[in-house]
Amino acid sequence: MTQAERDAAHLARCLELAAQVPGRISPNPRVGCVITDRRGRVLAEGAHRGPGTAHAEVAALEALRQKGRSARGATLYVNLEPCAHHGRTPPCAPAVAASGVARVVIGALDPVAGHGGGARQLRRAGVRVDVGVAADACRLLNRAFYGWAERGRPYFVLKAAMTLDGKIATATGQSRWISGAPARELGHRWRGELDAIAVGRGTVEADDPQLTLRLPGARIADPVRILLDSHAAVSPRARVFATPGALVACLRSAAPRRLAALRAVGAVPLLLPADRRGRISLPALARALGARGVTSVLVEGGAEVHASFLAARLADELRLVVAPLALGGQPGRSGPSWLGGRGVTQLARAPRFAPLAPPAVVGDDVLLTLRPLW
Amino acid sequence: MTQAERDAAHLARCLELAAQVPGRISPNPRVGCVITDRRGRVLAEGAHRGPGTAHAEVAALEALRQKGRSARGATLYVNLEPCAHHGRTPPCAPAVAASGVARVVIGALDPVAGHGGGARQLRRAGVRVDVGVAADACRLLNRAFYGWAERGRPYFVLKAAMTLDGKIATATGQSRWISGAPARELGHRWRGELDAIAVGRGTVEADDPQLTLRLPGARIADPVRILLDSHAAVSPRARVFATPGALVACLRSAAPRRLAALRAVGAVPLLLPADRRGRISLPALARALGARGVTSVLVEGGAEVHASFLAARLADELRLVVAPLALGGQPGRSGPSWLGGRGVTQLARAPRFAPLAPPAVVGDDVLLTLRPLW
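YS: structure for the whole thing
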């Protein structure tokens, strides 16, 4: 095994440790850390478990200390640049330098303005620093974090469960269930990983979902619930309002008595300007959510909501669960596909996508994870 | 490595050899053969290359002979039972027994009525015979052959190239190209492997396809071309008639002058009874094709043709190429999905499918290979 292969393997283990942490850790990124001796043997590992808890490097150094071992001369692997700033916890770069490690291998630099500089601090302290090992995989794991840090708006994931012929319901509106139990459980896991979940009024009226997290044994807070409803016309008796705090994104022109009725059940209206077509401006929604600290949103449809986000170029990722059944039906006499809107008539103008991961088998279903190519 | 693991590995190699033979070898199955010494070392290999050529066992024994080696005491692996009947070539079982092999490992028995008995012949000749190693994989490789042998009708493969939202064309009918070049080349390879290709009149009128095999360097005969056209109303100037011999499946009630016009360009009308809804009876078509020696058909659509085959339970396999683009559009104002027909309104009544292979990446596209669960 060459040094480069060993470095890549330890960085892959960092990503594995980072990915294993359950639930939501936003606004922080997923970070894992491995400390090895000079010959590449693993001495200690650590992972960041969320805001207010130790960063991965500090966790790994602490694990090493508890074993009664010293970091002197060791190599520390971490998928994100050690931080140089005081946040909820003290900065990591000085702690790493002080530990005596001889070399730090960093997957990717910190994209957050004002957070970087850790690599430079370490080099100044005499530590050998290598940056960019498995950088693509590091970016992939924290793609929502990078999207948020680089664009200042939430990372939007469009999710749909469709049949083999692209449909999300029958012509009479049946949609429960298209996907199988394992894919539905995965969907709930996503609700626990992303900050918020958004659906359109049509989905609330058709399915009356709770938009809560239902995972056996999970102790993860529910996501922020966002209902897209231009005229705030949804019934205050919808199940999404059973617990207070749901955001209702609507136009500033929405009727005051409707807003009052929603506030009365604990919902929070989010008053937004209209776009050119008189609908909620999604860029304005993205800014409003960003201002509330929402770093990622799982957009669960329906078809018109998905089409709006795609048209506004506010779709950062698609997660399509393809279930092994087909509904059939001629256009106009069949159920809706997951993507509505006006549709494109020229193939050359169709939105195109690239895989973010290979197709994955989830129970009887297949998960396609893609990003748009603008 | 245990004996069972060794057997499985040699049988897997038989399947690999069988699968590597290019093009169409129907009505014969794909068969590969490996001969090993007592310690499991490979002495010779062979594969069947099509009607009139040596069977795999004979090819492997001949390869062994050419190396100046004897089969005495050896083990012969083959994915299909050695034949016991005189066909275009002499039977294999006696030749295998005469070669002196001590043991024959067979993947699966021969399903063709009157072709079996090879295993019994070998046992009578004092050879140790084991049957059923990797039987599922053996059936999978030759699933069209088994389907044909067991049902006496062609094995029908429904193929479609669809967008991420299930569509095969835009609302204005654009369909070239939805899938990428590698998937289209794979489609041509399928045309070279299956006996026939079938499309509906709508597809001929929309795309005017040649239905020929266009693979660089391939020396494989074109498939039998089948056009489904109840009233024989297609234009005799369609490109599918550029070379004679295309079958036009139509109702017995089709206008004689239309049939005459088709015959005039070298097409062959196939006169069929009507089903209850006044359309071509697909079971009658299946029988007619079976009588003509057609063992497998690639059904390339369009949406109504696919729906008809699925409704008639004459869909043995789906091959869906999912391309990374989306067309969108509300029902009634969007392009057709790959599956038309009347559509199901109850999810519980939707046709369901099971994978025949894991999802495969083909260029930028994903191939889903499924079989219906009736």
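YS: worth flagging: Chain B has a mean pLDDT of 94.
IM: good catch. Also The first helix of chain B runs from residue 3 to 20.
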